[in-house]
Amino acid sequence: MVQVTPFLLMLSMVLVAPGHSAKKCVLTGRWMNELGSNMTILAVNGKGEFSGFYHTAVTATMNEIQVSPLQGSQHRTNQKSQPTFGFTVNWSFSDSVTVFTGQCFVDDEGNEVLKTMWLLRSQVDDIKNDWKATRVGTNVFIRLHSQQECKWQKGASGSAGSASHSFCSATCFTQ
């Protein structure tokens, strides 16, 4: 009995200790990237499919930016509840389509972050111009909470003289 008591005490401390449950990363909600683009991902169904809206802050066209529909799929969550996903944005204001792929993470501070890579395909007039029709890039999205605005701040990453090696961080505040 003497040896069992310390074991049971330790077990109960582990089971009821707050903060030991891992936070899940959930795609549903409002997100903003380092360029100021916003997206809303609506409910993810049982098959992992979702839809939503994307409002880009940047464009290479002269057309007025419009909110554009997105359609995607989430892989079932892994053991850490940090799912992989992909979605397509069919731009409402240009002859282009962008596909994003990425993973939903919970960082060390407990914040949800979407790390993505994308391909943007623009329409070109002929096959000779195909070489310039596809662009590639990355974006990091942070969750926007209700009534919250975030501003991205650019900073140096420590590599002197290299503008391409900068990082972005977001400062969020409640309105």
TrEMBL record:
What family name appears in the similarity comment? Belongs to the avidin/streptavidin family.
- The organism is Aquila chrysaetos chrysaetos
Describe, as the record does, how this protein assembles with itself and its partners. Answer: Homotetramer.
Q: What is the lineage of its organism?
A: Eukaryota, Metazoa, Chordata, Craniata, Vertebrata
Which Gene Ontology cellular-component terms appear in the entry? extracellular region
Keywords assigned by UniProt, alphabetized: Biotin, Disulfide bond, Glycoprotein, Secreted, Signal
Asked if the record carries the keyword Signal, the reply is yes
Q: What is this protein called?
A: Avidin
The function of this protein is: Forms a strong non-covalent specific complex with biotin.
Q: Which domain of life is it from?
A: Eukaryota
Subcellular location(s): the record lists: Secreted
Gene Ontology molecular function: biotin binding
What cystine linkages occur within this chain?
C25-C104
Q: Where is the signal peptide?
A: 1-21
Major location category of this protein: secreted
